[in-house]
Write a structure and sequence with these properties.
Distance between the termini of chain A: 49 Å
Strand content of chain B: under 5%
Structural class of chain A: mainly alpha
CATH topology of chain A: MetI-like fold
Radius of gyration of chain B: 24 Å
Strand content of chain A: under 5%
Number of domains of chain B: 2
Oligomer: heterodimer
Number of strands of chain A: 0
Shape of chain B: globular
Number of helices of chain A: 14
Helix content of chain A: over 70%
CATH superfamily of the largest domain in chain B: MetI-like
Largest interface: A-B, 95 and 88 residues
Helix content of chain B: over 70%
Number of helices of chain B: 13
Shape of chain A: globular
Structural class of chain B: mainly alpha
Chain lengths: 292, 280
Amino acid sequence: MPKFLTNINAISWYFLMPVLFIHFFVIAFPSILSLLLCLTDWNGFGKINYVGLENFEELFRDRIFKKAVYHNFIWTIMFLTIPVIVALIIAYLLTGIKRGQLFYRLVYFFPYILASIVNCLIWRYIFHPKHGLGGWFENQGIDFLSKSPFAMKETALYAVAWVDMWHFWGFLVIIYLTGMYQVDESLYEAADIEGATKFQKFRYITIPMIRPIFILSLIIIIIWSVPTFDYVYILTMGGPAYSSEVVANHLYSQAFQRMNVGYASTIGVMMFFYVGIIVGFFALLRRLGWEV
Amino acid sequence: MATAKFRQRSSYINHSILFFMALTIILPLLVLIFNSIKPVEEFGTNPLGFPSEIRLMNYYDAWVNGNYTQIFFNSMTLVVGTLILNLTVSGLAAFSLAALNPRGIQTVVVGLYLLVGISIPAQLYILPLFLMWKSLYLLDTRIGLIIIYSALNAPFATFLIRSYMLQLPTELFEAAKLDGASTMQLFTRVALPLSWPVFLTTALIVSLNVWNEFLFAITFIITDDYKPISSILFAFQSRFANDYGLVSAASILMAAPIAILFMFFQRRFIAGLTSGATKG
């Protein structure tokens, strides 16, 4: 055999080729295309014209895009608070019990493995004005949820976020629980001797000790909430009157309903830059020795 | 004494909070199950409760009207095809990074490359990919979607398998090498048989991801006969908008295989999904 085929360095590259090839073909190459197409006004068929940064100028004037960005921002804030707080409390309570812990863990985690479409159908029914909760209250003679929260401008975004959070928070419970079980038991014993309350132990031992995993969960939430799509698309399609439109949805309709290739690529590039800045920011913090 | 009593009372409170939160998950799921066996006439009078008459025909209707034999076959094809392609490429890569040259430049370069790949939002490349697939005649084919799913799951699978293979004793590989094994044999005869647990975990998570995937499924498959279960169910919610029995039965048919697998392999599912997030 020629030497270059037996060299361990070369061989290890051969084993890496398939994954690099398929990944480049599906993800890297189209991403690069997108970075180029955002400078054009292509519509998928005709001639490709270079238009410079015109798409970006248009994007900053696009009122629906601004609305969508604002909704994404609210979405991120909601996911950074509600599921995180609930999951922290529940995980902490779970560490205190022995009997039934496995049961609770399985139940909380279960919605996370269900498909988005199934979760959406469950909640679409429950929030249905004639059936579900609304219908049940109507049968009792109470006027509550008589309009679907998905169909009202004021509530659509929050109702969709509720369904997504319902499916997501159990995942955080498991992550925090893993972190909490790694905390040295003797710290709690020392605190017991000093007469610390349950809340004090939580605040001054649990939280600082699980900080790395806690910060990581926040990064995951921020990054995952950027391309959020399924729940909005299935439940409201961004409506009514764009009241639950998110960026990924806006991109999808520009791309596949209007075939505005250049413009859709511009939105994708903005999302990519945003995620890149977030990742870069945390990588920088880590490099500076701020332990995250 | 006093503290014991206090402990007991607070543990009642803890249990009731935990139980309440469990109910917020169990009750909506129960409503779905009840609906799937409820006759249409009963939805008005009894929207949430257990049906007075159990109607299993909803499942039959969903299966027949939804052409579920074909749909299940489509989804299974996607899962099996992705498993074969994804586990092959990820296994080879993980073996290379873990056993062949763990301290080489490859680990840094490839690791960084795949990490960047994970954090790219799918929306950045979905449209160019769509146009590429169209010109390559891969659009609206199951093999086209299998290639996409394999690539999407490759970084996660590679990292997970690699972290397991790193724990294999290097003496084993060296002994096999002395016996004259080729590099490929090191992979198939030594690494593979020893790391089957991680392949099982990875296979479960990849199957879950493929079975539940929505965005690429609705975008890349247009013909009804090739559609996987998630995009068919999406079409159902408008096609049979008022037939809640049928739609609920159809959703349960989609969730059931995953739920059954979850019951058998809960630890693997949970470990795989959480480590996929915290390591990636």
